Amino acid sequence: MTTAVSVAVQQTFDYLGGDTAPRNRLNGAYTAAGTTLTLEYDLDGIRAGAELEIDSEVFYVWSVSGQVATVSGAQRGTTAANHADDSVVRVAPEWFNKDILQEIQHAVRQLSGRGFFTPTSTAVTFDYSTLTYDVSAITNELSWYSIVFEWGGETYERFDFTELNETQLRPIFYPPVTDATVRYRKALVVPTATTDDLVSTCGLANSAIDIPPMLAAAKLLPQNAGSRVKIRSHQGSRMPDDVGHTDILRQSQYLQQLADMRMSEELLRLREIMKVRQRIYR
After folding, report:
1. How many helices (H) and strands (E) does the chain have?
2. Cystine design at 210: which of 9, 86, 201, 238 (Cβ 3.0–4.6 Å)?
3. β-strands 36-38, 68-75: how paired?
4. Does the pLDDT value for residue 223 go beyond 50?
5. Are 216 and 189 in contact, with CB atoms under 8 Å apart?
6. Cβ contacts of 55 within 8 Å, gap of 6 or more
7. d(CA 264, CA 270)
8. Apex CA 3: angle with CA 52 and CA 250, to 5°?
9. Contact, 269 vs 117, CB < 8 A?
């Protein structure tokens, strides 16, 4: 399963009813901070005052002459960038890619706030001179869970240790070997670009990647979306492919309820994997 943020953006569009913006293509590469775009097809909807989006950059159109539009790039807080020949040009879209990316980012933060984390383990070494494990190389940990080591052909998992400071864990027991693995809860990472990955970059489980698009769409949909589109019953499905894309899940409240249900399911799964252990200080 593809878990890139760009796929989550597309899934959000599916929940919103599909990307219905008219499209064109660049006829020639565009260099960041340039002032003109050359378009390949008829300029349907591209006129003075229109907004265009290429990749995640928004442009304002000042004038049009033939197939050339005079523009200002990096609009709506987007970043000036190069765009390859034949890049898709979205014309006056209802939702911009950059807005959806921002809502995906907000969704990951929301998941963190609800208690989501990445179960992680890292090899550590016991220092007999300080009687501690050095964990200085570990970052973004939320809390420590256990120390695992092998001895005499058996695997042992111990929970009796304290955190002396940000770099040292002191076990209550005396380890028989120096090499061990520390298990801990790691904070989710907010994506910064559509090329990031919800699993490898952000730390979400594969089973949870359906949640950010739901949360993003719920936030973006107008509150009166339910009066415009009737929602048919939806039971058990998770991904947009399962639900018919454009004809269901159009109401913000319904999507939020579905996302809440999925978050509860995933939190239960996480707690099965690793129970929450509060930090212990001495």
Report:
1. 5, 13
2. 238
3. antiparallel
4. no
5. no
6. 81, 83, 87, 97
7. 10
8. 60
9. no
Return all residues near 61 (Cβ < 8 A) that are at least 6 apart: 46, 47, 48, 49, 50, 51, 52, 69, 70, 71
The amino acid present at 210, given as its one-letter code, is: D
CA distances from 197 to 98, 190, 210 (A): 16, 10, 13
Closest to 273 (Cα-Cα) out of 118, 141, 157: 118
In SS3 terms, 154-217 reads as EEEEECCEEEEECCEEEECCCCCCCEEEEEEEECCCCCCCCCCECCCCCCCCHHHCCHHHHHHH
The predicted-structure confidence for 105-147, as pLDDT tens digits, reads as follows 999 999 999 999 999 999 999 999 999 999 999 999 999 999 9
Q: Which of 33, 183, 46 is nearest to 121 (CA)?
A: 183
Per-residue HEC secondary structure of 108-164 comes to: HHHHHHCCCCEEEEEEEEEECCCCEEECCCCCCEEEEEEEEEEECCEEEEECCEEEE
- Which pair of tokens denotes residue 128? 């007999």
Q: Which residues contact residue 218 at a Cβ distance below 8 angstroms, ignoring those fewer than 6 apart? A: 252, 253, 255, 256, 259
Six-digit token string for 15: 């929940």
pLDDT one-digit tens code per residue, 164-202: 998 999 999 999 999 999 999 999 999 999 999 999 999
In the numeric block, the tokens 């989501």 are attached to 116
Taking a C-beta distance cutoff of 8 angstroms, is the pair 138, 256 a contact?
Answer: no
What are 79-112's pLDDT values in tens digits? 999 999 999 999 999 899 989 999 999 999 999 9
